[in-house]
């Protein structure tokens, strides 16, 4: 028989008689000199082969206190004793019962054999009262050699097997704790049920979801558990139907999205599948609830971002910039060239002409459209702050700089920065901007390191930069750096034929926003819009139409609308008669009283001219139907002249 090399065969003998220790040395040491003549020894002689005994390691103690110290030391050093033989009567000091009790406090796993040469009827009662029956045997002296060998071998092997099982059990406990920790940390609610629907396991997420501990959930019958859990769902009947179906078909895998109402509203992904044993028999099912509220919210946000981006691209698409005049067509051609390169653009035009709209259209139609568009009004930032605003600053760079600040250029990295009113930039900042445009890197205020940037610059101004250069108000080298690709925006006065288109565009916008059914302009109102010089350009026109829509009481904007009647007609506008002859027409200043038919004819002629003889567009601009405009054109003999 072979014994495991790493098994514990440490044996402790506790007795006050030296001869007992000698006897144990003889009985547990193979080949030890001497033989027992006891009758019991002879009975076992033919059954035990000493060559098959393991190598026992014998330890000796002459008193209870010595035995206690020996066991305690063995435990502390990691070399525990497997079996201890303890004599019951050991005067003076602790007897065997007290020694056993003390040893149990430091090593509850040691196998103990009590020895006695006396008959003591109360021994069993004493042992029972002291709760020492665990791992405890009792033998009487004298004992046979083979008896001790058999007992020692059996108890030592028992101790080792239980020790290995204990180690495996502890490893299993650790594994279970790790598994439970993993299941608790997933954020999912996980539970396992047997085939009858009784709960077998629930993680912390499941307990929190249904507001009960695992022990409380386990005590519920399947019916009680179903009644308890279904009340948490937005559609409890549907949940109940699913549970009934799964009990009837335990092999079924099921997935769905469900909404819970308690303890808070959530959208859950629910997954349940059968659990099999090693013979592939279904022993239960596992159910997982995963909170997908955030995922749904994120997906909705992605959809919303995509929608807003598409809306932005549509909003700043070229066809959203209203204007069909030849001046605007020239602007569109320049914009198209600008979006195909990364060149710095300078947009020039009067206030209110839509310079920012052009800048945004260039950005949102360029390869940089996925990046940020950062606009900076150089005239609106106080002089002491503009450098920090553009380039950022380090903590402690100046009084009040308590934290690091990221500037506009860094914020626009990968996209476009729009420097509006660049002519108002201070000379010191102009010099730093020139360096940024040349080196493509910035330095924060108070910083020492250079930060590379990938930014497209679009600048705009309503001033004459060349004149500013001549008088020393703007750096000449910066002017040539930003003016590499100029885009001049015409004033509204310089493209009057776009006024009807812009007017109807703003009319539809603000009539819809204010839920008003205003369909167009009266002839006089349109003529008034056409005759005004619009020093505030498109912005002034938009604000005027917005006010007029709010003040108008009819279905057509009238010339006497308070927002329109205040407009001045400072320019003379030409209209045409039925023969194509130019006629002066100035409704606000003229002393000549024209008939309504004459005014209507002038309006028709002008509408056809502005729309390049497109009857449909002319009818829409005048706020009448195609049938009506055809009838009026025929009435004034304009069909053959159009």
- Residue share in helix: 40-55%
Class based on secondary structure composition and strand pairing:
alpha/beta
Strand portion, in percent? 15-25%
Spatial shape: elongated
CATH superfamily of the largest domain: P-loop containing nucleotide triphosphate hydrolases
Overall number of strands: 21
Oligomer: single chain
- Which residues form runs of ≥5 with pLDDT under 50? 33-48, 570-591
Number of helices: 25
Biggest beta-sheet profile: 5 strands, parallel
Tell me the count of domains: 4
Salient structural properties:
single chain, 642 residues, alpha/beta, Rossmann fold, Beta-Lactamase, 4 domains, five-stranded parallel sheet, five-stranded antiparallel sheet, 21 strands, 45% helix, 16% strand, elongated
Describe the structure.
It is elongated, with a radius of gyration of 50 Å. The longest helix is centred in the first third of the chain and has 41 residues, at 145-185. A five-stranded parallel sheet has the order 2-1-3-4-5, sandwiched between helices. The chain has a five-stranded antiparallel sheet with strand order 7-6-10-9-8. Strands 12-13-16-11-17 form a five-stranded parallel sheet. With 642 residues, the chain is an alpha/beta fold. Helix content is 45%, strand content 16%. It folds into four domains: 10-165, Rossmann fold; 186-291, PAS domain (Beta-Lactamase); 322-488, Rossmann fold; 494-635, Helicase, Ruva Protein, domain 3 (Orthogonal Bundle), CATH 1.10.8.60. Strand 8 (254-260) and strand 9 (266-276) form a beta hairpin. The protein has 25 helices and 21 strands.
């Amino acid at each position: 028989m072979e014994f495991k090399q790493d098994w514990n065969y440490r044996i402790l003998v506790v007795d006050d008689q030296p001869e007992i220790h000698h006897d144990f040395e003889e009985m547990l040491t193979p080949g030890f000199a001497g033989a027992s003549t006891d009758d019991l020894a002879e009975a076992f002689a033919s059954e035990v082969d000493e060559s098959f005994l393991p190598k026992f390691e014998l330890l000796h103690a002459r008193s209870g206190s010595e035995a206690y110290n020996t066991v305690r030391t063995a435990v502390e050093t990691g070399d525990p004793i497997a079996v201890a033989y303890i004599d019951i009567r050991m005067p003076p000091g602790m007897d065997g019962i007290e020694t056993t009790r003390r040893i149990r406090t430091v090593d509850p796993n040691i196998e103990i054999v009590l020895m006695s040469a006396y008959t003591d009827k109360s021994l069993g009662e004493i042992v029972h009262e002291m709760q020492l029956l665990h791992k405890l045997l009792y033998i009487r002296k004298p004992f046979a050699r083979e008896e001790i060998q058999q007992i020692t071998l059996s108890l030592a092997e028992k101790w080792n097997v239980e020790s290995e099982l204990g180690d495996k059990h502890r490893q299993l406990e650790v594994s279970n704790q790790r598994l439970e920790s993993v299941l608790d940390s997933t954020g999912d609610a996980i539970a396992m049920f047997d085939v009858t629907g009784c709960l077998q396991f629930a993680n912390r997420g499941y307990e929190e979801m249904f507001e009960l501990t695992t022990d409380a959930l386990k005590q519920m019958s399947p019916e009680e558990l179903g009644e308890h859990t279904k009340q948490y769902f937005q559609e409890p009947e549907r949940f109940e139907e699913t549970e009934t179906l799964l009990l009837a078909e335990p092999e079924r895998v099921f997935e769905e999205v469900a909404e819970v109402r308690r303890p808070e509203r959530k959208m859950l992904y629910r997954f349940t599948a059968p659990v099999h044993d090693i013979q592939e028999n279904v022993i239960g099912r596992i159910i997982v609830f995963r909170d997908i509220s955030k995922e749904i919210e994120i997906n909705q946000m992605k959809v919303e971002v995509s929608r807003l981006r598409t809306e932005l691209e549509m909003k700043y698409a070229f066809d959203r910039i209203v204007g069909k005049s030849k001046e605007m067509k020239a602007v569109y051609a320049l914009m198209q060239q600008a979006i195909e390169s990364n060149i710095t653009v300078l947009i020039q035009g009067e206030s209110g002409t839509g310079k920012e709209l052009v800048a945004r259209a260039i950005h949102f139609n360029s390869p940089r459209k996925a990046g940020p568009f950062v606009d900076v009004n150089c005239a609106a930032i106080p002089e002491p702050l503009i450098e920090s605003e553009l380039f950022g600053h380090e903590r402690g760079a100046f009084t009040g700089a308590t934290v690091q600040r990221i500037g506009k250029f860094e914020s626009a990295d990968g996209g476009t920065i729009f420097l509006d009113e660049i002519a108002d930039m201070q000379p010191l900042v102009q010099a730093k901007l020139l360096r940024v445009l040349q080196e493509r890197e910035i330095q924060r205020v108070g910083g020492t390191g250079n930060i590379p940037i990938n930014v497209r610059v679009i600048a705009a101004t309503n001033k004459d930069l060349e004149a500013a250069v001549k008088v020393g108000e703007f750096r000449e080298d910066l002017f040539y750096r930003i003016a590499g690709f100029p885009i001049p925006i015409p004033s509204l006065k310089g493209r009057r034929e776009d006024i009807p288109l812009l007017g109807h565009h703003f009319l539809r916008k603000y009539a819809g926003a204010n839920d008003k059914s205003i369909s167009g302009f009266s002839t006089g109102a349109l003529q008034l819009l056409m005759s005004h010089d619009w020093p505030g350009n498109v912005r002034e026109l938009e604000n005027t139409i917005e006010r007029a829509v709010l003040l108008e009481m009819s279905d057509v904007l009238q010339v006497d609308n308070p927002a329109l009647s205040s407009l001045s007609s400072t320019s003379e506008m030409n209209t045409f008669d039925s023969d194509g002859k130019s006629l002066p027409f100035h409704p606000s200043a003229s002393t000549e009283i024209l008939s309504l038919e004459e005014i209507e004819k002038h309006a028709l002629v002008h509408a056809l001219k502005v729309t390049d003889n497109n009857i449909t567009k002319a009818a829409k601009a005048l706020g009448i139907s195609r049938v009506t405009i055809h009838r009026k054109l025929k009435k004034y003999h304009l069909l053959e002249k159009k």
